[in-house]
Amino acid sequence: MDSHEVVKNIYLLVIVTLLSVLQNVFFAQKVERECKSQRSQASTFERVSCANRNCMDAYPTFLAVMWCAGVCLNQAPAAFAGIIYLLVRQKYFIGYLGHTSQCTPGYLFGKRIISFLSLMCIVGIFNYLLLRFYGSDYKEYVQTITGAASALLLIP
To answer: Where are the transmembrane segments (predicted)?
Structure first.
């Protein structure tokens, strides 16, 4: 398999990963700005710092399940779920700067997206095992279902 073929199978995941890196840079700059601001209150810095830390805690899990789901099953729904996760994480971060009750919907929605991606991983691995040991490949059916189910992520 040449490198062009490999990139064709993962380019959406790469784009979402790069967007997530840019988002992390934005979060870090926000923390730095609050740290350097003379008129900033300690509580504002604590909120920004805590929101950034919470986002960073979930980041490795998000990347792992998104890539696993994309490689093992289908990159399009995994990348779509990744984009939605980034939007939700942005909402969580901004909500955390206000009242902490404003960040709860973003947090819960983010958990739902990670659960969806985890389920995609499990189904993709299970399908691979079925193909490997029994010769049954249900990947087309599962890809159709996950493609349709990814649209359900938009329902709050």
So the answer is: 6-27, 62-88, 113-131
Contact 88, 106 (CB under 8 A): yes
pLDDT digits (tens, 9 = 90+) for 85-137: 999 999 888 888 776 677 778 888 899 999 999 999 998 898 888 888 887 77
Q: Is 29 exposed, middle or buried (0-12, 13-18, 19+ CB in 10 A)?
A: exposed
Residue 42, in any domain of the structure = yes
Q: Give the residue among 57, 63, 60, 58 at the shortest CA–CA distance from 117.
A: 63
- CATH for 29: 1.20.120.550
C-alpha to C-alpha distance for 6 and 31, rounded to whole angstroms: 37
DSSP state of 152: G
Q: For 42-60, how does the pLDDT look when each residue is reduced to its tens digit (9 = 90+)?
A: 677 888 888 889 889 999 9
Note the pTM of the prediction, 2 decimals: 0.85
Give the chain's domain count. 1
Cβ-defined contacts of 101-107 (< 8 Å, 24+):
103/51, 105/156
Evaluate whether residue 104 is within a structural domain: yes
